[in-house]
Amino acid sequence: MLIDTHCHLDATEFDADRDHVVRSAFANGVSGIVVPAVARFNFDAVINLCQHYQNCVYALGVHPMYVARSSLDDLELLRTYVQNHQPVAIGEIGLDYFLTNPSTHPENIKLQTHFFIEQLKIAQAHDLPVILHVRHAIDDILKQLRKHKVKGGIAHAFNGSMQQAEQLIALGFKLGFGGAMTYPRALRIRALATQLPLEAIVLETDAPDIPPEWLGTAGRNSPAEVLKIAQVLADLRQVDVAQVLDITGANAIKIMPKLADLCTPVNALH
């Protein structure tokens, strides 16, 4: 089963041709697409989108890069939405130290951490997995995951060390690999994709972002590309792509069991 575990299908980049993008994805064998929210402004958008497109499911959360424009009241709103709308996961949540370095943006980091912890508590309360944004912040994320244990989830766009990977796996997480893995110079990511147990990996696009090598760094990524991304992973591991599809699909369903009911062969549009 081919599942794109991370796609921002509600992004404005898809406004002109979203129907075509979805049809193309399913025509290329995609069985399911997980659409994570990033802040309260798109909670309704991702819910409505996934109700319109079959085999699309949503996660709800406040992304660390959006906490500065969010209110603490948004956490209460998230609790209400999770109760009423039953997402497959809490996400996209986490910490980002790339644009907001702790030494230069301490107040933002403090706010990110508060939002992250409170959203982990929401995941605990509803027995939901989490979709993690972990850019340049994996050690601090691991620290919070040990304090606030959740039922696992996905470390999206993983680009850490083998030791960090093993610690996340021990906490019940799968690691997301996508377009970055397709670049020959991405030696660390490709080594991880080759050496980690296939049972620890899920596939993703992060569309419209992180385009694969064949689209170029300025290209628009789309969920249809996840099939070729799967082929790259199969080539790196020197296995048949069918094995990659079977195992990574099963991994996604293990993390988000609701996918098992929704990801069945259907038409892309109602």
SSE arrangement:
Blueprint: E1 2-4, H1 18-27, E2 30-36, H2 43-52, E3 56-60, H3 73-85, E4 89-94, H4 106-126, E5 130-133, H5 138-147, E6 153-156, H6 162-170, E7 173-177, H7 187-195, E8 201-203, H8 226-237, H9 241-255, H10 259-262
Parallel strand pairs: 1-2, 2-3, 3-4, 4-5, 5-6, 6-7, 7-8
Helix pairs in contact: 3-4, 8-9
Structure description:
This is DNAase. The protein is 42% helix and 14% strand. It is built from ten helices and eight strands. It has helices at 18-27, 43-52, 73-85, 106-126, 138-147, 162-170, 187-195, 226-237, 241-255, 259-262; strands spanning 2-4, 30-36, 56-60, 89-94, 130-133, 153-156, 173-177, 201-203. It has an eight-stranded parallel sheet. Strand 2, helix 2 and strand 3 (56-60) form a beta-alpha-beta unit. The longest helix is centred in the middle third of the chain and has 21 residues, at 106-126. The radius of gyration is 17 Å and the shape is globular.
Q: Structural class given helices, strands, pairing?
A: alpha/beta
Q: How far apart are the termini?
A: 21 Å
Look at the structure and name the CATH superfamily.
Metal-dependent hydrolases
- The top-level CATH class is Alpha Beta
Shape: globular
Stretches where pLDDT falls below 50 for ≥5 residues? 265-270
CATH architecture: Alpha-Beta Barrel
The overall strand count is 8
Question: What series of H and E elements makes up the topology?
Answer: EHEHEHEHEHEHEHEHHH
Pfam family, one: TatD_DNase
Binding site for a divalent metal cation 1: 6, 8, 92, 206
Binding site for a divalent metal cation 2: 133, 156
Protein name: DNAase
